[in-house]
Model the fold of this input.
Amino acid sequence: MRDVAIIGIGQTKVGEHWDTGLRHLALEPLLAALHDAEMERVDALYVGNMLSGELTGQEHLGALVADFAGLRGIEAVKVEAACGSGAAALRMGYIAVAGGMADVVLVVGVEKMTDMLGPQATSALAMAADADYEVAQGASFVAINGLLMRRYMYEYGYRQEDFAPFAVNAHANGMNNPYAMFHISVTPESYARARMIADPVNLMDSAPICDGAAAVVLAPAEWSPSSSAPVRIAASAVATDAVALHDRRDPLVLEGAALSAYKAYEQAGVGPGEIDLFELHDAFSIMAALSLEAAGFARKGEGVRLALEGEITTQGRIPVATMGGLKARGHPVGATGVYQVVELVQQLRGQAGANQVANARVGMAQNIGGSGATVITHILERA
Amino acid sequence: MRDVAIIGIGQTKVGEHWDTGLRHLALEPLLAALHDAEMERVDALYVGNMLSGELTGQEHLGALVADFAGLRGIEAVKVEAACGSGAAALRMGYIAVAGGMADVVLVVGVEKMTDMLGPQATSALAMAADADYEVAQGASFVAINGLLMRRYMYEYGYRQEDFAPFAVNAHANGMNNPYAMFHISVTPESYARARMIADPVNLMDSAPICDGAAAVVLAPAEWSPSSSAPVRIAASAVATDAVALHDRRDPLVLEGAALSAYKAYEQAGVGPGEIDLFELHDAFSIMAALSLEAAGFARKGEGVRLALEGEITTQGRIPVATMGGLKARGHPVGATGVYQVVELVQQLRGQAGANQVANARVGMAQNIGGSGATVITHILERA
Done:
C-alpha cells in the first residue's frame, strides 16, 4: 500500500445554477483540480453523486463526465452512498491509488438539485432513508432529524436555542468563503426568529437544497507538485449502521460514525486530541452535535455544550465547518464530501484566508449518508 | 498487487419477483455465495445497481443490504455504471482485494424492475443514455438499438432474419439453466414471427425487463476453499466511450468495448484465440454482434456472420450466452454483470451441466453500460 496525496483541488460556488447542466457543473472544478495538480494525465475518474437519476433523468455520470472533460476512454464510474457519495467516491480513488491500480485519479462530487421544485428534492433525498419502513410512514429527512433533535433535548435537558451556535459558527465562517452559498450573518437572535421546519428543527438548523461540484486529484505522495504543500491522506475509513433510525441500539449514538472515526484514528495513528479541525456533516444541527460525540470530541450529550462554550469556532478547541459547512457553504449532497476535503486541503496548505485555523497540520472530514447509516472519514496531514 | 480469486458464487432465478422486496432479493444470492465460499467474515460489500432510486424509491443500497445481511458496520457502497453496474461493482471489489485494502469482499448485483409499469422501466433505463441530447429527442434504448441495427444491415447487407441465431442460441442455452427467466425454445421461424418493437429490433432481439440478484465472494487467490476449483481473476478492465451515439467516430464500432477487451487481454497475457467462452452483453442482438467484433472474435461487419455459421453455440469456436445470456437468463440491469461472472465460474468449475463448454479454462465476461459508453471486461482462469 502506497502513501496517497491530494495534489489538486477545485470547487464551484455552491448555489442555484439554473443556467448550468449537470456535466457543465462537474467540469469547472474538475479542470481547476487538474490545473492545480499540474497534471494532464488521468488513469481513472470516480464520480460521487446521489440524485442525478431522480432529479435530472441522467444516470451513467462516470462516462458522461469523463467524455465531457475530454477524458473519453478512461475508467470512470459513479459511486453512491446517499449524502455520503462524495467521500465514498474519494474512498474508491484512494483505494485505487494506494493499492497501485492507478497512479492519478480524479474524484468529482456533483449534485444538481434546484431544477426541480422543493417538494421533489425533499422526496428524492428521502431515498437515503429506509423506503419500506421510514419513508412509507411519511418520514422525510427533516422529520427524522426533528425526531432526533427532540429526543436529544428530552434526554439531556437542552432548549431549542442551545443549538444556535452551530448555525452562528457556520455562517460566520461562510461569510469569508467565496465558494459558500450564503454570505449572511446569523446571530442567536436571528436563529430564534427562524421559521420552524419540522419542530424543533428550524430553517437555520438545516442545510439548503442547492447545486455544486468539487474535485480533487489523487496521486502517490511522492508525486506532489512543488507549487503547493503536499497533503497526505493519513486515513480513509467507511463504516455502516442500520439505515432506519428505529433499528439502532440507541438513536442518539451514531455507531457508524464512531466506528468510522476510530478506524481512521487507528490508521492515522492519532486520537481526537491531535485533530486540528473537523469538517463534520452538519446537514442538521443535531447531526453536528451527534458527530462531535461519536468522533470523541465530546461526551454523550455534550456535543451541544461544546458548541455553547465556543469551542467549535476557528479559534476553539475543535474548529468545525471552517469554511461554512453544509449549512452555509451549502449541501449539494453528492458533492459535499468532496467539498469537505477540498476545504481541509485549503486549511492544511494555509490557504483558508480569514478562516485559517492557526498551525493546522492534521484535519478530519466526516461525510454521512442518511441519518448515520454510511459514514466515511478521512484524515489528512500536511507533510 | 495480489492475485484475486472468486471463491464463492450465488444467484437467484431471474423473473418477476412481485412478492420480494429489494433487500430480500439481494439477500438470497449473498448468503449462497458466502456459503459456497465457506466464509463468514467479510471486509467490504460493493453493490451494483442502477435503478433502485427511480423504480423503488430507495437509494443507499450499500448500507441497506449490509444491514439486512447481518453485516452491519462493514464498509459498503453502491457502484453505478448504467447496465454495467454489476461488473463495475466487481471491479471495485477486485481493486480492493488486489491492492490489499480488503481480504474478503462481497459483490452483489441487484435490480428490481417489475413492480412498475412497462413504460416506467423503459424511461428509467433511458437514463443510461444522454438525457440532454438523446432522451430529450425521444430516444429510448430500444430506439437507439433499432437505429444501430438498421445501420448495420444497411452497411453490411444483412437481412433482419440473419440476427436470429443470437436469440436461438441464447434460448437453447437458457433451457438448461434453472436460474434463467425463460425456458422456451426459439427457432428461426418463431424469431421471424416475433412482434416488432422498434423496427428492425423485434421482441426476440431484446432482453426482458425483470428482477434478479447475483453475488460473488472475492479473496486473495491462495484463500480458495478446497471444495471447489479455484477461479482466478486474470484481468479486470474498464473503458469508456461517448454516452451519445452521435458523438462516436463510427456508431458501428464499440471503441469502449475494444479498449476494455484489449486492456484485459494485455493484463491476462492472452488473445481472443485463447478465450474458451465469452459472456457478452446481448441486451440486443445488435449489441452481441458489435461486441464480438470489438473484442476481436469477428472482423468489422462479420459478427452476425459468425453467429450464422454456428460458431457462437457451446460447441462453436466462441460460445456466447452459454447459460442463456441477457436474452434468456434475463437482464436485471444492475445485476447482469455479476450473473455473467457467476456463469463463467460455473463453466470454469465444470458445473455448467448440459451447457458445459468442453475443457473451459479461460473465460471472458463483458458488461456494457448504455449503448457502449462504459465497458467492463473480466477474464477468469481456472487455476
Summary: Residues 97 and 103 of chain A are 5 Å apart (CA to CA). Chain A has a mean pLDDT of 96. Chain A touches chain B through 64 residues (CB under 8 Å).
